[in-house]
Structures are given as structure tokens and as C-alpha cells.
Automatic annotation (TrEMBL):
Superkingdom field: Bacteria
Stretches assigned to the Phosphotyrosine protein phosphatase I domain: 31-218
Pfam (any one): LMWPc
Protein name, as recorded: Protein-tyrosine-phosphatase
Lineage: Bacteria, Bacillati, Actinomycetota, Actinomycetes, Kitasatosporales
Entry-linked Gene3D superfamilies: 3.40.50.2300
Length: 226
């Protein structure tokens, strides 16, 4: 198996390596977030790049321990993201450059600490791959619902490192699953805008933004700037 692309983190190259290994002078590991959709050209690229953008806005270099990637269950390997997805990211001020679509592989799931999917079907596909993925795989909206129920005071402070905080958040969310159910199946879905006009892409971008905001706040301990 080949190693997953390391270029999907918040930083790149030597600077990314430096950020990932240094925190107040101490060694630090990383926490990988994997976003999954179907083609990896619409929803998961938007979610990947918005996550990176929001984490960088709130933590700057301190967010370097979070590596954010994406892949597709029927991935358009090597394809760029859809032009309308790029347009949506630009409107949020997020960087869409250099994106290349990937097909979801076993090693992506193995290395991920948190897998966030667009739909329940994607979640089922990831879990069916094995690798003990069940406790760390959620739909994006499911994870948002669970995160909102977690008391931030029960999570490690940012001073302990964003990686420790992220791992504790996933454990807490997994413990709540089964107690906080969606009102209906549609509540956990982000629908596919592939081939749709820009206004529909914008609506999906807004959905993703709304779902990501409490997740990034919980991960970082920092609320969005107004």
C-alpha cells in the first residue's frame, strides 16, 4: 500500500513538518480528519478546505497538528474539484488551489482519527471496510449533533495540545451515539450537488459551513470571529 497524500494538512512542505512536530518546544503527533463523499469533487473537497480554513483562522500555526484530507467512495482519481465547488470556497475565503481527487483506500481509513461522511451510505461504506472504523466514523451532521451536546469543560484545554483535545472529542462523541438520534434520516445527509447550478452549490456550502462551525469550535476551543 502507498502512504496517503501528506499534502492535505493545513500547512505544506517543510513548514507543515515543523508545525506538526513542535508545540511549545515539545514533540507532538498529529490528528487526521478524513472527509468522505462519492466523487471527491464536490462535497468532500468543500468540507476539507473549509475545515482547514476555519482551523487556520482560529489557531494559526497551533492548528498544524490537525491534518485534513478527503476522498471519494467512487472517487474521480486525479480530477480537480468542480468549478462551482471552487466558487463556493472562494466566497468563504478558503483556498481551493492544488486540489486533486482521490478514491477512498484502506490506508486512508486506517490512518484517519476521525472520518466525517456526507451521508449515511458513505458512513456504512467506510465502516464496512473494517479497520475498527466504527467508533471514529460519523456523518458530518451526526457528529455536529453529538458535539453540541458535549460540555467543552470536559475536554482537555488547548494548552494540552489540539491533538489531545481532538481525540477526547471523538471519544466523547462516540459515547453519546445511540443516545442522541437524528429526528429522521434526512437530518444526517448532505445532498450531492454534482452537476447542479451555482445557487444549489451555495446552499450545500452553507449547510456544510453550519455543520462545521460547532465542530471546529469544539476541536479548537475557539469560536468563530464575527
Amino acid at each position: 500500500m502507498t502512504a496517503p497524500d501528506a499534502g492535505r494538512g493545513i500547512g505544506n512542505g517543510e513548514r507543515d513538518a515543523e508545525i506538526t512536530t513542535t508545540f511549545v518546544g515539545l514533540p507532538r503527533d498529529s490528528f487526521r480528519i478524513l472527509h468522505v463523499s462519492t466523487g471527491n469533487v464536490c462535497r468532500s473537497p468543500i468540507t476539507e478546505r473549509l475545515t482547514r480554513h476555519f482551523v487556520a483562522e482560529r489557531l494559526g500555526v497551533l492548528g498544524g497538528g490537525l491534518i485534513v484530507e478527503s476522498a471519494g467512495t467512487w472517487g474521480h482519481e486525479g480530477a480537480p474539484m468542480e468549478a462551482n465547488a471552487e466558487a463556493v470556497l472562494a466566497e468563504f475565503g478558503a483556498d481551493a488551489s492544488g486540489f486533486v481527487g482521490r478514491e477512498l483506500l484502506d490506508e486512508h481509513v486506517i490512518m484517519a482519527d476521525l472520518v466525517l461522511t456526507a451521508t449515511r451510505d458513505h458512513r456504512a461504506q467506510v465502516i464496512s471496510m473494517g479497520h475498527s472504523a466504527g467508533l471514529r466514523t460519523f456523518t458530518l451532521k451526526e457528529f455536529t449533533r453529538l458535539v453540541r451536546a458535549i460540555d467543552p469543560a470536559t475536554l482537555p484545554p488547548l494548552e494540552d495540545g489540539v491533538v489531545a483535545r481532538a481525540r477526547a472529542l471523538v471519544r466523547a462523541a462516540a459515547a453519546l451515539r445511540g443516545w442522541l438520534l437524528a429526528p429522521n434520516a434526512e437530518a444526517d445527509e448532505v445532498y450531492d450537488p454534482y452537476g447542479a447550478p451555482l445557487p444549489f452549490f451555495r446552499s450545500i456550502g452553507d449547510e456544510i459551513h453550519e455543520a462545521l462551525d460547532p465542530v471546529v469550535t469544539a476541536l479548537t476551543g475557539v469560536t468563530a470571529r464575527m
